[in-house]
Amino acid sequence: MTDFDNSYARLPERFFTRIAPELSPAPEMVLWNPDLAKLLGTSDWDAVICAGNVIPEGAEPLAQVYAGHQFGGWSPQLGDGRAVLLGEVATDQGRFDIHLKGAGRTPYSRNGDGRAWIGPVLREYIVSEFMHAADVPTTRALAALRTGARVQRERAYPGGMLVRIAASHIRVGTFQYFTSRGDEEAVRLLTEHVRARHYPQAANTLELYQEIVRAQARLIARWMGLGFVHGVMNTDNMAVSGETIDFGPCAFIDGYSPKALYSSIDQYGRYAYEQQPSMAHWNLAQLGSCFVPQLEAELGGEQPAVDALTEVLNSFPPLYQEEWRRVFGAKLGIADPGEDDVPLIQDLLGLMAQDGADFTNTFRGLLDGSARDWFLDRDAFDAWVPRWQARRAENWQEMIAKVNPAVIPRNHRIEEAIQASLAGDDSKAERLVRVLSRPFTLSEDDEDLTHPPREDQVVHQTFCGT
């Protein structure tokens, strides 16, 4: 039995528009997550309910409004243009949104059709469930469906819908929307809502901001440790919960390059791999500006508020660097990584970048010595190894095996699964989900999924599907 308790729907009406999903002509389940369904109490849901054709008892469908900086340019009103928040489910592991992505037009669709096609739906399902299995804070997928409709992009595709689960869908851009309108009451209500829902340990606005900054430092460091490129880090795509959200033109690095970029719409590399920490910092600066008026009231003046928020914002780089050392130190089997270990880590990454060494297989290959095979300049790698051996912990093999996945959602494998699904074969997508749900262990039958793409399989660009 699904236990809905829709706290966001109890906020003032200017936070959203109540709207039901558009009907899907012939919904069909493609992927289903039984473990997540059990947690949410949705085990009895079928494709008709997941598509939003039947609204379950207790749900209050709505589309959230927000704004955002998109590739640095200000958009004063965005919002759920192709998604509907069905409602919130209270569980013994917390509160979760159930969100239907691809649910049709809303007042925020901006001339779009509000629909999704099956390709991006499968990509988000596969990648988000891998991220969860790899212990990265993330939205998750309950179901992927075909809707029975045709969606026109560069050509007609089978329509798709993702049932997405999140701790919430509140974004930096949600705060920006109300701040840009001078609606201080709404910002205050939103602040109280976020603090109660995500950071009850925060005693005030400044502490809430500190918690959000810490959460983003942890999140981005984990992205970097997996070679993950989000691709579209606009402020409307940064969740204040600290979860990875909006898997659009995302991808994982094969041959390592710090400038790795896959998004078809990021022409200038704003959101390339190496840029992600600084972009998170930039986004957090925009969030901090939203807190000035209420912190001014709490601290008794504008300048004290600005100074306090600036101090918290400036804590992001050292917090991120600490998290980055911890993540990459663990990837090398170093138990207590400190500043002195940074050159060791950076030198390995430099060699990897120089030779285009496979990111995932190099780190995993430290276990069995196969890492060396990914380098062209093996003498340079051999010279690095003794320095590493001098720093690794006694249980270094156990550490490496726990944090370096044996398999990731390779871009070409996702593309293969999408193309197979377009031809009516969902087995490749099902296999990826099965294998990637346990990414640190691998059977011999699935070793082919560890192989980098051949030259003719390389995926140079990914797309969000709007």
From TrEMBL:
The keyword Isomerase does not apply. ATP binds at G79, G81, R82, K101, D113, G114, R164, R171, D246. Keywords: ATP-binding, Magnesium, Manganese, Metal-binding, Nucleotide-binding, Nucleotidyltransferase, Transferase. It catalyses: L-threonyl-[protein] + ATP = 3-O-(5'-adenylyl)-L-threonyl-[protein] + diphosphate; L-seryl-[protein] + ATP = 3-O-(5'-adenylyl)-L-seryl-[protein] + diphosphate; L-seryl-[protein] + UTP = O-(5'-uridylyl)-L-seryl-[protein] + diphosphate; L-tyrosyl-[protein] + ATP = O-(5'-adenylyl)-L-tyrosyl-[protein] + diphosphate. The active site is at D236. Belongs to the SELO family. PANTHER family: PROTEIN ADENYLYLTRANSFERASE SELO, MITOCHONDRIAL. This is Protein nucleotidyltransferase YdiU. It comes from Celeribacter neptunius.
